[in-house]
C-alpha cells in the first residue's frame, strides 16, 4: 500500500510502538480516536521547557518569565496557523475540548452578556445532533435547563449520516446556536458543514463545530469553513493531555462574557467591580497549562512537517483496507458508512452474539491489539442503533496494514472462542 508516507520512519518517532507486551506480544495500538500516542519530539520540547525555561507566563519580569511567555504565545501562533485562523488572538487555550464547548455554552443565557446573540430564554432553541459526544450534549442540556430554552437535534440515518431532510424545520428563526460534531468519534462520518451553515446564516443563528476528531486527521481551515466557533483537544493531535483549543471569531470573543474569573484575565480590579483583558486572555484565568500548550505547539509542528494531505491519504488507504477486511468476517456489522465518502479512519462494529467488552479483552490479552469498547461517550447514538456498545478501531499516521491484519486475525479468534 503506497500512500507517500514513510510510516516506518514515523513509527520510530513513537517509542511506545516498539514496546513488547507480556508474553512477547508487540503492541498494536488502534485507539487513537481515544487518545493519540506522542512522538519523542513533542516529549523533548516539553522536557526542555520544564527543565530549562519554566516560569509562569505574563507576570514575571525576568529571563525565565520572558522565555516562558514567549514560548506559550508562540504556541498560540502555531495553532492559529495550523487551523487557518485569521487572527492569533482568536485562539483560546482551554484544558480540553469539553471545556471549550462549555465555555461557549456558558456565554449563552449569561445575565451579564450584553450582546443579543447570546441572550437565551423560553421560546429560543438550541440544535445539536444524535451523533454527538457527551461533551457536545450535556453542556447544551444544562444551558436549556437553566434558561428554559428548548434543545432539538438532527437524527442519524441508518447508514450513519446526518439526516438533513428536515433542516429547514429544525433550524428556524427561534434557533440561537447549532453545535454539531465535524467528524463522528463513533461512525467516522465527516458531516457536511456548508448546507447547515447556510441555513444557520439564513435564520441569524450561530454555529459551532466539535472538531476533536477532524483536526488531528485532516487539514481544517476555520476561515474556509466559515463557522463561528470550533473546538478541539491536544491529546488527539499527538500532543499532551490537559490542553484544548477554542477558536472563535474575534468579534464574538469580545462580546462573550468571561468563563472563569481570576488572575491574568483582568484589566483592572477594584473591590466592587473589575474590567477584563481583551481576548484571548479574558478566557484564560489563572496559571494556564503552559508546558501543555508548548507541547501542543510542538505537536502541530510535527504534523505540519509531515503534511496533513499525506496523513489523509494514508488514513483513507488504511480505512479502505480495514472495511474490506472486516467485511469478510461473518457476523460482523459495521456501524457507520461502508464507503470512503466523507469518512474518516474510525470504524466501530459489533460481532453477533459477543459483547464488545469480551472482544476487546481477548484482542488485548491474546494479540496485543488495543481497541476501545463501550459507547465511546456517545450513548444516545448507540441507543439510536439499538445496541449497548461497540468495538472501535481508530487509525492514525503510525498504523500499518499489518496491524489491521492482526486485528482481523484476532476477531476470527474471538469468534472461535465463543463458537
Automatic annotation (TrEMBL):
Keywords: Pyridoxal phosphate, Transferase
A Pfam match: Aminotran_5
Function description: Catalyzes the removal of elemental sulfur and selenium atoms from L-cysteine, L-cystine, L-selenocysteine, and L-selenocystine to produce L-alanine.
NCBIfam families per the UniProt record, alphabetical: sufS
Catalysis: reaction(s): (sulfur carrier)-H + L-cysteine = (sulfur carrier)-SH + L-alanine
Protein name, as recorded: Cysteine desulfurase
Cofactor: pyridoxal 5'-phosphate
Entry keyword Transferase: yes
Amino acid at each position: 500500500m503506497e500512500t507517500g508516507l514513510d510510516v516506518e520512519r514515523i513509527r520510530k518517532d513513537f517509542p511506545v510502538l516498539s514496546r513488547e507486551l507480556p508474553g512477547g506480544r508487540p503492541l498494536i495500538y488502534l485507539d487513537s480516536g481515544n487518545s493519540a500516542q506522542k512522538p519523542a519530539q513533542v516529549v523533548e520540547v516539553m522536557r526542555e521547557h520544564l527543565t530549562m525555561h519554566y516560569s509562569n507566563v505574563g507576570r514575571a519580569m525576568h529571563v525565565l518569565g520572558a522565555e516562558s511567555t514567549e514560548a506559550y504565545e508562540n504556541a498560540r501562533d502555531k495553532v492559529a496557523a495550523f487551523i487557518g485562523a485569521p487572527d492569533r488572538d482568536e485562539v483560546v487555550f482551554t484544558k480540553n475540548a469539553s471545556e471549550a464547548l462549555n465555555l461557549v455554552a456558558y456565554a449563552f443565557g449569561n445575565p451579564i452578556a450584553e450582546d443579543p446573540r447570546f441572550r437565551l430564554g423560553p421560546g429560543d432553541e438550541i440544535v445539536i445532533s444524535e451523533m454527538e459526544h457527551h461533551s457536545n450534549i450535556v453542556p447544551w442540556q444544562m444551558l436549556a435547563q437553566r434558561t428554559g430554552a428548548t434543545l432539538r437535534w438532527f437524527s442519524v440515518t441508518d447508514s450513519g449520516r446526518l439526516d438533513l431532510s428536515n433542516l429547514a424545520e429544525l433550524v428556524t428563526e427561534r434557533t440561537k446556536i447549532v453545535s454539531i460534531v465535524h467528524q463522528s468519534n463513533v461512525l467516522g462520518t465527516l458531516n457536511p458543514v456548508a448546507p447547515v451553515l447556510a441555513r444557520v446564516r439564513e435564520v441569524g443563528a450561530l454555529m459551532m463545530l466539535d472538531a476533536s476528531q477532524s483536526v488531528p486527521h485532516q487539514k481544517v481551515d476555520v476561515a474556509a469553513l466559515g463557522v463561528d466557533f470550533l473546538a478541539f483537544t491536544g491529546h488527539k493531535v499527538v500532543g499532551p493531555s490537559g490542553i484544548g483549543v477554542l477558536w472563535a471569531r474575534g468579534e464574538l470573543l469580545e462580546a462573550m462574557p468571561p468563563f472563569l474569573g481570576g488572575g491574568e484575565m483582568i484589566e483592572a480590579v477594584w473591590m466592587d467591580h473589575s474590567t477584563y483583558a481583551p481576548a484571548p486572555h479574558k478566557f484564560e484565568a489563572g496559571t494556564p497549562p503552559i508546558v501543555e500548550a508548548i507541547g501542543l505547539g510542538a505537536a502541530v509542528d510535527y504534523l505540519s512537517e509531515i503534511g496533513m494531505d499525506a496523513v489523509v491519504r494514508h488514513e483513507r488507504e488504511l480505512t479502505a483496507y480495514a472495511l474490506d477486511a472486516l467485511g469478510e468476517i461473518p457476523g460482523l456489522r459495521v456501524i457507520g458508512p461502508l464507503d470512503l465518502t466523507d469518512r474518516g479512519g474510525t470504524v466501530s462494529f459489533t460481532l453477533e452474539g459477543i459483547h464488545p467488552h469480551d472482544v476487546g479483552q481477548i484482542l488485548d490479552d491474546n494479540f496485543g491489539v488495543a481497541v476501545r469498547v463501550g459507547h465511546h461517550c456517545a450513548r444516545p447514538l448507540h441507543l439510536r442503533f439499538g445496541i449497548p456498545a461497540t468495538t472501535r478501531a481508530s487509525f492514525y499516521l503510525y498504523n500499518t496494514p499489518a496491524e489491521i491484519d492482526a486485528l482481523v486475525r484476532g476477531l476470527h479468534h474471538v469468534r472461535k472462542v465463543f463458537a
